Amino acid sequence: MTTNYAGLQSVIWREDRLDLLDQRLLPEEIVYLPLLTAEDVWEAIRHLKVRGAPAIGISAAYGVVLGSRNEQSLDTWLAEAIKQAEYLATSRPTAVNLFWALDRMKAAAADFAANGLSLEESKAALLSEAFAIQSEDEETNRMIGEHALSLFKDDMGVLTHCNAGGLATAKYGTALAPFYLALERGITLRVFADETRPVLQGARLTAFELQQAGVDVTLICDNMAGMIMAKGWVDAVIVGTDRVAANGDVANKIGTYSVAVLAKAHGIPFYVASPLSTIDLNTPTGSEIPIEERSAEEITEGFGKRTAPQGIKVYNPAFDVTPNEYVTAIITEKGIVEAPYDVNLRKLFES
Ligand code: MRU
């Protein structure tokens, strides 16, 4: 399948450095940050310069390359690659793609070192592994887009939350991939983008990338979703995810759970777009998913303007968990999975 998708690429390897699109500055400024060390990558992930589960994993994979490239012997190179992977794993806790990509890089490094590759060959092969993680994500997202589009019909209204688009992945996005395919095939979908408090990934990123592409997108505040559902404007919801537990509970950006409950109350299907790299069979249920808490300032003085009293108590979880009973289907690169999730998600990894 070819597509006309021409969105901004958030992660670019350039010969001897990693360029990351600084997503904190969007939509006003398009700035690529040149990163040279694993510490630079850790800091970029922690501070949301790069964000979105797959993009975090891809960036961290390149971070392992950067962090181990100065070693002068095969033994110290392998030890350093593993050490840097473990360090990068401390950057954010919720998106399992981070740990998935880092485990893959550690296993690849150990494999190259054990199989007689020289130091320089091992370094080159590790970079190729990071490239593979990035290019496989692109292909995965195209497949997710194809499967998701089969659920949508011309003129449907579809609501999304946060940003699970090209900016959050290697290309196309997960939840946003069907919108790009629809556009190319002349299928009109009316997309509603929740602004997504407190960091506004919906307003700054989803609205931006869909508008750039020419998708019919309308921005709403998070607290308007129920009202437009009641009006009959929303035929389906589709969101991305940071981690799907073995029982089909889904962690995603804070506010996703409220959208799922509203969708159920209005009889609207609630779809989750998830690559297999986001499904974590080692986490039995959503209650075991670590939920990141972020700084109070994101709520009290987001974007430089104080909007709450000094000294106010704040609770700022970055993600919530939607229980599986609210999830109509999980759309993966291998197809559409419905309940019972504990059985059907496992099957995806068997074939
Ligand atoms: O805090 P963020 O911006 O990294 O949160 C991102 C999300 O919640 C996305 O929906 C999720 O990572 C899926 S991206 C394909």
Automatic annotation (TrEMBL):
Gene Ontology annotations of biological process type: L-methionine salvage from methylthioadenosine
Site (Transition state stabilizer): 162
Enzymatic reactions: 5-(methylsulfanyl)-alpha-D-ribose 1-phosphate = 5-(methylsulfanyl)-D-ribulose 1-phosphate
Pfam families reported for this sequence: IF-2B (PF01008)
Biological pathway: Amino-acid biosynthesis; L-methionine biosynthesis via salvage pathway; L-methionine from S-methyl-5-thio-alpha-D-ribose 1-phosphate: step 1/6
Active-site residues, Swiss-Prot/TrEMBL: 242 (proton donor)
Keyword set, alphabetical order: Amino-acid biosynthesis, Isomerase, Methionine biosynthesis
Residues that coordinate or bind substrate: 51-53, 92, 201, 252-253
EC number(s) reported in the record: 5.3.1.23
Domain of life: Bacteria
InterPro entries linked: IF-2B-related, IF-M1Pi, IF_2B-like_C, Initiation_fac_2B_a/b/d, M1Pi_N, NagB/RpiA_transferase-like
MF term (GO), any: S-methyl-5-thioribose-1-phosphate isomerase activity
Family: Belongs to the EIF-2B alpha/beta/delta subunits family. MtnA subfamily.
Function comment: Catalyzes the interconversion of methylthioribose-1-phosphate (MTR-1-P) into methylthioribulose-1-phosphate (MTRu-1-P).
Name of the featured protein: Methylthioribose-1-phosphate isomerase
